[in-house]
Amino acid sequence: MQHRYSRQTRLKSFGEEAQSKLAEAKVLIVGLGGLGLPVAQYLNAMGVGTLGLVDQDVVELHNLQRQVLYSEKDVGRQKLEVAHEKLRQQNSSTHFDIFDTFLTKDNALELIGQFDVVVDATDNFPTRYLINDACVMLNKPFVYGALHGFEGHVSVFNLNDGPTYRCLYPTMPSEQEIPDCNDNGVLGVVPGIIGSLQALEVVKLVTGVGEVLSGRLLLYDGLSQRANQIKFGAKPEFKKISQLQNAYGPSDCERVSQLSSDNFIAMRNSKQNYTLIDVRTPQEYDQYHLPEAKNIPLDQLEDSNLQWENPKEVYVICQSGKRSATAVKLFQTKYPNLQFHSILGGMNSLEAISHNI
Amino acid sequence: MTILLFGITKDIVGSPTLSVPTLSATGKSIPKTVKELKEFLGETYPELNKLSSLAVAVNNSYANDDELINAYDEIALIPPVSGG
User: Fold this and answer.
1) Main-chain dihedrals φ then ψ at residue A29, nearest 5 degrees
2) Separation between Cα atoms, residue A59 and residue A31, nearest integer Å
3) Nearest-CB residue to A121 (from B50, B81, B84)
4) What pTM was estimated for this model as a whole?
5) Vertex A28: Cα angle to A169 and A332 (nearest 5)
6) Model ipTM?
7) Distance between CA atoms of A240 and A219, rounded to whole angstroms?
8) Tell me: the pLDDT tens digits for A1-17?
9) Which residue among B52, B55, B60 sits closest to A177, beta carbon to beta carbon?
């Protein structure tokens, strides 16, 4: 019989029974980057019935060396939209649930609650810890994959009584401690390998075929082609989480809210109430600054204790837009209930646009 | 004592493995527990002290700080990695 899945159903230990379990499975893939794409492509090809896709990023040129589903013409488009379009062409019988958002503490429980298995294909610690905590609360297993240079880590966390991410790493590292792919670099093929391993773990988890990588951390090194496995156990204190944390910090790769200088000027002219913080050095500030700007140099920001006159919208400016982006990340961690925006291009672009300022 | 290094620890040390002498020529005491090993390495590589979560495995099993180690053990330092 001509059967779409015959090459895997003829495997004696897999068969029609495992195939029908795949068809019934609902898998949520968080992140459609280097890891998430191979996961999505293979699970979709193999016949997983329902795939949930979460991402709010846009395809950028420097993504293409490892995110091989995207083409040059997709640069600038929503990853979610491009991936959805291509995956539908790949398998028209898959049901897709698409979520045009980043995973946040406000939507994590609702989204994850709709699925059987979660794939952590993110690129930052805050989202990884959020996925862990939400999965522990909802009693869902999640398939973890993460990269560092030529190296990849894979495990299945929170499967029944099995250990969680926090059993290995109780405390979330700070943003400065460990670099991400954007800062550290990653060789294009490595996420393809690690993402494929994650897809395999999802299949095993869903079908019950083989041994799931629960309680074991797989460490793969592409340079030496060596793989190590570390055994670890559950710690009872990390198996009980009754609520999500108030804040998981800004995601490294989640965009800092940026505002173009044009939009800032338009907002400024509309006479809205806002707070403007200039994070340049006092010397730079003294030379010239916007009249309403309050000076808090970047290096003093951690120790600053601010009383907000306007509690909602805060704009942050520097000379070129780089320091203000860093400042927004720091501010957002310190004051998670306020909304901070970095002004793109900083004072340089304001000057270029208007001499009236 | 052989130490396998992963993630950022490999970058900090600048090599995928590290060998800790089992007889101390320097007069420093040899680490006897995971905790002592972390302190021992932290003196040479202070950047390691900054890691808020650092998993250590002894002979391929996760080890708590109080676990005893000896010269024949293979140790792995496994910090969390974030890329994706």
Assistant:
1) -105, 115
2) 12
3) B84
4) 0.77
5) 55
6) 0.94
7) 27
8) 469 999 999 999 999 99
9) B52
